[in-house]
């Protein structure tokens, strides 16, 4: 091979490996965004700011998830058990029967990804 061809290959390979560099967490965030839009956005809002269509007039309002201070274990607990399960608003439903363990993990990855408090 000529030198220029070798250089072109090196460039091509380094570019294509960068493009496919989604790690496991990136993939979890992507799956989690789908879970979020399907099950959570109606209350928590498309932007997770707590301003979903079902939020109007609710006291307490659905949390602004971009500003949550809960750690992952606390997030998982309220998502699994709902507000009632952790002495908070019953308007936050329990999701343990609707979502798989992986979907719960993914939606937490998504919340952490969009969070401004991390
Ligand atoms: C029917 C409306 C509704 C839906 C749907 C809903 N939530 Fe909530 N959520 C709430 C309300 C209301 C609160 C606030 C509870 C409180 O403050 O007592 C809340 C609170 C939370 C909190 C606690 C945040 C904090 O900082 O305290 C998390 C995490 C959360 N929701 C995640 C989710 C996820 C993930 C989904 C989708 C799988 C979801 N919620 C779907 C209404 C909803």
From TrEMBL:
Top-level taxon: Bacteria
Cleavable signal peptide: 1-21
Any Pfam family the entry gives: Cytochrome_CBB3
Domain Cytochrome c: 27-115
InterPro entries the record matches: Cyt_c-like_dom, Cyt_c-like_dom_sf, Cyt_C_IC
Keywords, sorted A to Z: Electron transport, Heme, Iron, Metal-binding, Signal, Transport
Coiled-coil intervals, chain numbering: none
Protein name: Cytochrome c
Species of the source: Leptospira ainlahdjerensis
Phylogenetic lineage: Bacteria, Pseudomonadati, Spirochaetota, Spirochaetia, Leptospirales
């Amino acid at each position: 091979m000529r030198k220029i061809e070798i250089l072109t290959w090196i460039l091509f390979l380094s570019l294509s490996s960068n493009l496919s560099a989604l790690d496991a967490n990136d993939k979890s965030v992507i799956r989690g965004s789908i879970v979020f839009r399907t099950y959570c956005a109606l209350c928590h809002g498309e932007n997770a700011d707590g301003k979903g269509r079902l939020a109007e007039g609710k006291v307490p309002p659905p949390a602004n998830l971009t500003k949550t201070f809960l750690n992952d274990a606390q997030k998982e607990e309220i998502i699994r058990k709902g507000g009632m399960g952790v002495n908070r608003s019953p308007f936050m439903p329990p999701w343990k029967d609707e979502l798989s363990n992986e979907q719960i993990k993914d939606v937490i990855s998504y919340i952490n990804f969009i969070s401004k408090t991390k």
